[in-house]
Amino acid sequence: MRRAILTVLWLGACAATPAASQDDYDLANALADRGWFDLAEELFQGIQNTASLQPDKRAEGAYGLARIKSMQAERETDPKKKAVIYDGAINAMREFITAHPNHRRRNEAYSDIGYLYQQKGKSLMSDHAKSDQAEAAFGEAEKLFLELISSLKGKRPERPEMDGGGRKPAGFDEKMAAFEDWEQRMMFAKYNYGISLFSHAETYRDKPEKFDEMKRILEDMVKYFEEDFMWDFEQYILAYDAFIYMGRAYQLLAETARGAQLAKAEDYWKKCFNFIGKAKSLMAEKSLRANEGVREVALRATYYEMKARTAYGETRKGGAAAKQFIEAAKLAEDLLKYYPNARVDEMGRIIRIEQGRAYFKAGQIDKGRKVLEEIKKECPDTPLADTAIEIISEFVGDTDIGVLVAYADSMLDTGGVKIFTAIAKYRRALTSIRRREDEPFIPHCWYRLGECYFELDRYWEAAAACSMLEKAPYVGTPLGGKAALHKLASLQKIKDLTKQKPDADAYATFLDWATNKYPKEVGGRGIRQSALELEKEGREKAAADKYGNEFEQAAQKWLTLAKDPGSPFYGEALFTAGLDWYFHARELSKAAKTESDGMKASGVSQKAMEQFSAYLAWYRRQPLKDDKYLVHNAVGAIQISMAIHLNSKFTKDPKAGAEAALKISETLDKEFPSGDPVNLMKMFTMRIEAKLDLDRVEEAGEDIKALETRYEKSGLGMDSYVRALVLMALAFEKQAARIQAADPQKAETFMVRSGNYYYKVFLLDQNQFKSAKLDVIAGMLYRIADQKMKQAQKTGDKSLAAEAVTSFDQARDLYQQFRLTTASTLTPEQDTQILSRIITCTLQAGKFGEARKLIEEITGRDPERRRGWAWAALADSYIIEARPMPPSAQRVDLFKKADQIFAELISRLQGVKRDENFWELTYKRAEVLFEYAPEELLKFFQIMDVKGYGQTWDDGTWGFKEKFESLRAKLNARTGGGQK
Amino acid sequence: MTRKIVSTAVLFLTLIAAAVAQSKGKVDRITLRNGKVAEGTIVKETYVKIEIQMGGTAPTGYAPADVAQVGLIAKIEYADMPAALANALKEIESAEWQEALAKINSAEDSVVTLKREKKPVPRAFWFEPWINFYRGVCLKELARPDDAVKSFKKLIEKQKDARLVPAAYEQILECYRLKDDAEGATAFIAEIEKAPAELKVQLKKRAQKQQAEIHLQKNEADKALPLFQELARDTDPQLRADGIVGVIRCKTLSKNPDDLIRYCEQVLSTSSDPALLLVASNALGDSHFERKQFTEAKNHYVNSVVRFHPGRGSPLTSEHERALWQLAQCYQQLASAAQDKSAKDAYERMAGRTYRELSLEYRSGRYADEAASRATE
After folding, report:
1. Which residues of B touch A123 (CB under 8 A)?
2. Which of B110, B298, B346 sits opposite A457 (nearest CB)?
3. Is B342 inside a domain boundary?
4. Average per-residue pLDDT for chain A
5. How many CB atoms neighbour CB B65 within 10 A?
6. How many CB atoms within 10 Å of residue A919?
7. What is the pLDDT of residues A34-77, one digit of tens each?
8. Distance from chain centroid for Cα A12
């Protein structure tokens, strides 16, 4: 959030940069956010090395590269490596600041350093032995911001004042810009200092011996925010974020109050809700809700209030506790009313998870389960789904063993430290099984417990768990066979470890037993085991950028198993051999130096595809396809084959590759209706990419409609959907550019289609447009809409007019977003220009009420009618509304209002200048008179003739002479008069 | 209908065949330890019997007649149990005594509110004894034995025929033992004579158990052993289990490893109760550990950890926790003794991960901090 807030505030600065490199910068950031670091790095390096860019623009590349390091640190799971990567990221940020002390991203870089220190501190704090280093890291963060604040205090520029007559003295704008720049830096520094205190204190929440220290830090933080922070709500959303932190600080104080402090707890809770409530109040303002920053604050505030309500409920009893839990759940309902789309974004889902938990705590088991089951279905196999299952299993696990076991399975599949959770859950399931229908879970739990311990290299425990399946009724069953293999593997490890005779004897004895009971399983086990070990070695080498032939050897091992269709490993061998060939091909490709190396890689990739094809053929022959691993592998086989076909390193003929990718995936929909939705979305996007490669743009357009339906149904795979939309937009943009000279009209239709796709991207993921790109696309849509509307008015083509209205509507949304996110940085002239476009779009889209509100906002503050454009727009709104009306008093009244405005504006300009604006207003007034008072128009022409303008008009400079004469002819025709 | 003197654990369920209309989801449920479930309306819960009126449908997979078989009660769920009490029982399972006590008080308060609002309240025949009993348990665990005794005595005096009465007697004796108040215990044992005749035999056996515990507390294993041995032959499974555990503890104290090993192996080969298996397996592990036979000790602790978990809420979960700690210690010892570097690394990894398991599974346990500091992933 902290980053996002900063980004929102920096939009203004971004908007002023050259669009092309800005797009690259945004794209690189978006890629990095999604974890595609290699691609992001390439783009940032490109920005850094582009000599034609301004130095400060190139410096953004350096900043981006430093940011990647910071993101990599956050994703690293090994605590030792994490601390090192954090240090690297901190250094990179410091180098950026040193090299570019006045760069506009310096504040962001300072925030990043502080944040990195805090994250490093948190990560170290989890290790008892490193708490000193953790404290030092927190200290560094606080020191950094205090130094920054202190240095800024000495550099405060004078705030310029207007002179006595309310005029700007010379140099006013420059001085004001310098002051605002200083103010912004100071606010950021203070905000970050407060947050660094909070982060420090928060690490003590589970350490009662540190509660006094925590209290002191939190009280310092609150005091600091109350007395020293700059509460500039108008300009910075940041201030609302500070409220959330203050609320959270009071929550911590309330939760950890002990002894004499307990009496204060209730007061702390009140303050907690009060401060978070202030942040939440932002979303109560309808006009602000569309702002991305406001949305983010609203979501965060809701989330933290829910957490606080739940925690407060825990301290209450009976009905009072339930009341808090229900209140927490209701907060989510309220938020989702304002932001229905938030249901399917990550933060929204986290909030829904808290909602489910709150329902459970309130005793509303059915409601809680419903909410969490929905999440589980929407995003299967994700950490969110795991959390949902965990909560369900916590509350109903004693009675619903299936839920408990499913959760344990997902934990084991996740691996790492989650395996310990899996062990606890399997154990709980085994001790909770009482009903006959739950008994089938018993062998499953024992086998999986064995797997858990094996994964943890605790082979004695693994063997003990697996041995539970050596007796009736489990012996002889497929699971019994699997358990026997696992136990055998464990005993082998034990034998190799201890090198003791009793362990070797135990292994030999069990091998005899297992060979007798499960001959096929035991036969293939050794080969499988060695293949898996080779793969492990290969992965380790690849991670260290060292390449060997382990994957090739592993593939050969699997091929041995794949010779016997009766082997229990047959299907696994077919698929995994393909996978290993693919990995081997990738390694060869990465290490390739010559064309022949590349050819070799390509050849190996073909072997992979042959294996996948064999696996798919086998899979399709299987009578039952309910094993999720079989399905998973089948989808994987198609996905990797598509990736190979579409990869230029493996495929010589891109067109043929694209055709093949399409062919292999053409039955996806029918064959895998319940496949992993995220993977399927990726594959459908790959199909679109393939069609675009083949210039089958129209067909791709049809596919994207199906993709849209799929996305709307599940809310999953947004990344893929957005990617597909961007690909489509780019494809149409390219097509438009290609035919621009030969067929400008067709080029325009392509641009419209491109614009439509961009607009959808905008609606889905505004992060893609945190830049001048918004303005550019809005401008494009506006121009197109304008041309269409003019054309439609000429020809009377209603469908064209409707298209124009849609484009105006879209342009208006984009302009509004642009204006909201850049409000603090636009000059009054820029703001006026954007506002006038918003008004025009709103008018053209037929939203008169809305447009008039916008206009009246301006005209209401302008009784002297200095802002003529706004008044003219108001008059336009009356005309546009009146024109299609049947004759009536209301229609006349609207024209009269427009007439009065035009008359007033013209009279102001008459003595000053007769420019295009003057003639346009005059002509518009004439048109109005023609509509509701032709006799007045007659007089108008007479007066103009008398004054001499009736002959010359604008001398044809802006085309008004023709227009006036044409109107005069129309008037004559209507009145039968003899006007010249 | 069978009538018999019963312990707190062995109960007969009386099924009243007459169909009783039950609205869905509003039934009482009795789960036996053998997994069988009876659903209906419980109308009586005494130390003699539990009476349940069954609805028209039997629990899935079981005929009502099955439920009527004698079995050990694993769980009783009342449809009108206030959420606070249900939560308190969960807290008790997790040994969160302070929280449990607060929730029990809250459950009691909620009844006052329900009465004031003229809403249905939990049926008094079960609610009041449960409140008195579980409050006593929490107070005892919170080292407030005097208050606990008051709560148990209230149950004995006011709800004379409640199912929990025999357990309350035993809990009172345990409170005296915790206070190291032999005189108080003796005086209370004399009070057992005043108990209902049908309870007297059982209560005397429970008193015998507590006397044995007092001997053990004073390191008088030779005096405790015959008392426990007698209990180990009892027909009441719970008393029998308590007796076996007592015998193992006495034999551990008597420093005769061969005798201990013999007895524990006998228990391991004859019992199927995971709690007993855990205690026996741990005793074997301890015996080897003391003699620095870490490989053998490790094997026993592995069984304790993996195969003999006593179940959530069992008073013996602390034995499981201890087994994890001991197992990690064994791995550490084996690592120190290993000559080969790869073996040393492997044992250290096993130790680190066993400590991790311990620190995560028993977060607020006695070894949690130490285990967390030694844990690796």
Report:
1. none
2. B346
3. yes
4. 83
5. 9
6. 22
7. 666 766 787 788 788 877 777 777 888 888 888 888 888 877 76
8. 20
